[in-house]
Amino acid sequence: MFDRYEAGEQAVLVHINFSDENSREDLHELQMLVSSAGVTTVDVVTGSRQTPHPKYFVGSGKAEEIANAVRTSEAQVVIFNHALSPSQERNLEQLCKCKVIDRTGLILDIFAQRARTHEGKLQVELAQLRHISTRLIRGWTHLERQKGGIGLRGPGETQLETDRRLLRERIKSILRRLGKVQKQREQGRRARNRAEIPTLALVGYTNAGKSTLFNTITQAHVYAADQLFATLDPTLRKISLKDVGTAILADTVGFIRHLPHDLVAAFKATLQETQEADILLHVVDYSDEQHEDNIRQVDEVLAEIDADEIPQLMICNKIDRMEGIEPKIDRDDEGRPCRVWISAQQGIGLDLLFDALTECLAQTMVQFQLRIPPKAGKLRGDLFHLDCISDESYADDGDWLVSIRMPSNDWQRLVKKYDGHLNDYVVNKH
Known about the structure:
Elements: E1 10-18, H1 27-36, E2 40-49, H2 60-73, E3 77-80, H3 86-96, E4 99-101, H4 103-114, H5 118-133, H6 159-194, E5 199-204, H7 210-218, E6 235-241, E7 245-251, H8 261-266, H9 268-275, E8 279-285, H10 291-304, E9 312-317, E10 328-331, E11 337-341, H11 350-362, E12 365-372, H12 377-386, E13 389-394, E14 400-407, H13 408-417, E15 426-429
Parallel strand pairs: 1-2, 1-3, 3-4, 5-7, 5-8, 8-9, 9-11
Antiparallel strand pairs: 6-7, 10-11, 12-14, 12-15, 13-14
C-alpha cells in the first residue's frame, strides 16, 4: 500500500489561473486560509490552464515542478487552491511522495480546529465524513479482496464495503443527534417568536469583522482574530435598543467563495439562525479591494439557503483603514437606512448603527395616547408589564393619561384580550 504521509507544518501551495471566471480562485485568500490552519508556506507554484488535466489536475510538466518543489523545500504537504477528484489526489500523492489536500480539505481542517461546541464538532465531523466517503478507495487498494482465512473463505464483505457501511452508520448517527440539536434550536426560536423579540443576524464574508462588532455591541467575549473562519459556532446575545426594547443579536459563521456544498448542508442548523432573522446585518470589509466580489459571494450563499428575501442593512466596516471616510448613514430612495459606515474595532459610528437599527425595527412599532379610567386598572398593569410607557399624567377627573409605544403585534394582542374595547381609550394616534 502507498504510504500515507501525515500533514505537516510546511506546505507547497498550488494556484492555477483558469480562463473561466467561475473557476478562478484568489491566491491571497488561499494564503490566509493556510495561515489560519497554522501551516507555513515554503513555496508557491502557479500556472495557467484552459481546463483541469484529468490525471494530475495540472499538466504532467507542472506536476513534476510541484514534486521538485516538495523535494527542494522538504515540505510535508501540498495544498491546491482548487477542488481535486479522489484519483487526482491519489496520483499527485504518488508523484510527490507526500500528502496532497485540496481547498475543501483545507477548509474542513480549519473548521475542525475551530469547533468549540458539541453541535459544531458534530457538524464538522459530518462534513468530513461526507468528504472522505468519496475518497475511501485511496488508502485501501490492498484490502479490495474479500475477508477470508481458515473457516472464513467464500463470499463476504470486502474491507472497502465494510468501511463504507461503517461510514454510512456513523453519518446516520450524527444526523440523528443533529436533529435533536435542531429541535432544541427551533424551540428557542419559537419562544422568541412568542415573545415577539426581533432577531438580528450578522452575516458577511469571512474575516469581515462580524465577531469584533458582536463583541463591541454586546460586551461578549467571543473569539475574534484577524484570520479566516475565526467564528464557527453561532452565538446569541440580548441587546437593548432605544424605543424598541430587547432584540437578539446572532453571530454566525463567515461565508467564502465556492463554499463546499457539504459544508452548506452540514451547517444547515447553524445557518438557520440566518434564515429566521428579522434583519440581516451584512458586514463588509470595505478596506478590502475585493469587497464588491465578496458581497456578491455572500448574496449567492444567502440565496442558496433561502435567506435572500430577508431585509438587509449593510455595515461598511473598517473605515479606520480608509482615508477620507467618516461614519455616516446612507439611505435608499424611500429614506430608509441601507448602509452604515463604521469601525467595529475602534468603536467609530456605533451610535449611528444603533440609530439605524432602531429606525429599521421601529417601522413595526405603533404609538398611541390613551385615556384610561380608574376602573381599567388591569390594563394599566398590562402596559407596565410590557414596558411601553413613554409619558404619563392624570386628568382632573382621575383618568390616567398615558403615551405608549410598542410593537404592533403586542398592540393587536392587547386589543384582542380586551375584546376591542381598547380602542375606546385611544385619544389620538401618532
